[in-house]
Amino acid sequence: MIAIARKELQQFFSSFGGYIALLLFLLLNALYLFVLRASNVFDLGYATLEPFFSLAPWVFIFLIPSIAMRSFSEEFKGGTFELLKTFPLSDWQVVLGKYIAVVLVVVLALLPTVAYPYIISTLAADTGIDTGAIIGSYIGLVLLGAVFAAISVWCSTLSSNSVVAFLLGAFMCLLLYYGFSALSKIPVFTGNADYYIEMMGIDLHYQNISRGVVDTRDIVYFLSLIVLFLFASRQNIRSHE
Fold first, then answer.
1. What is the pLDDT of residue 58?
2. What share of the chain is helix, strand, coil (3-state, %, to 5)?
3. For the chain, what are the domain ranges?
4. Cβ distance 120 to 200 under 8 Å?
5. Is-contact 211 136, C-beta < 8 A?
6. Contact between residue 101 and residue 193 where contact means Cβ atoms under 8 Å apart
7. What is the mean pLDDT of each run of 10 residues along the chain (241 residues)?
8. Which residues of 175-203 are buried (b: 16+ CB within 10 A; e: fewer)?
């Protein structure tokens, strides 16, 4: 499993594409937080990282599928999946190895942003930032990235075309992140089933954790989605045997 993860990381960073993807993630968030009008902290007038934590999930919707799209699709297309199956590895080890590699890339993308709270607190004139909310938001982002990684790896098992895998991954991440929230706002559901529909989506649980209150129900929700999509990935690769 570790060997699989190492191989995936080496492949991702073997070309400039991987570095460019991470650089664009950091650049886009930095521009949104410090430069662009109406979203930068200088125009807001108070110390907050809310713009970053609001934008990051939407960037993840495209970034993470682009990282994971080749996980299995390239193996199927190049015929190397049959070779991979000859190694003394179980289906779970193969899936988890590729999944862990994607999650590690996501964590690496987030690591430089840890400097943002320090920069914001340094710029603050008097009051500091809400440390509890910042920690909760980072926990939420890591969990969100882990779920998107599981979804994207599963989408990669559905097609031998990496572009199709990317599009499917982006669509599924968007659907599960915001689709249920959008559906709950339809007038026919207002005041009736809207809360329960929204609970099915990722956005509500991410927002809950971002407030600095880490609820067990939200953690269980994220972990359940991860297990579900990893299990589905394992079932899909077994069908290719």
1. 94
2. 80, 0, 20
3. 2-238
4. no
5. yes
6. no
7. 84 82 89 76 70 90 93 86 80 93 94 86 67 87 96 94 94 94 81 83 90 86 96 88 59
8. bbbbbbbebbeeeeeeeeebeebbeebbb
Contact, 108 vs 100, CB < 8 A?
no
Closest CA to 144 of 82, 208, 232: 208
Token pair listed for 213: 């209150």
Structure tokens at 159: 């097609």
Alpha-carbon span 3 to 9, nearest angstrom: 10
Provide the token pair at 113: 């942003």
Indicate the residue type of 227. Answer: V
Helices 162-174, 131-156: inter-axial angle, 10-degree rounding? 140
Cβ(99)–Cβ(146) below 8 Å: no
pTM of the model: 0.92
Roughly what angle, to the nearest 10 degrees, separates helices 50-68 and 162-174?
150
The residue written with tokens 């914001």 in the block is: 120
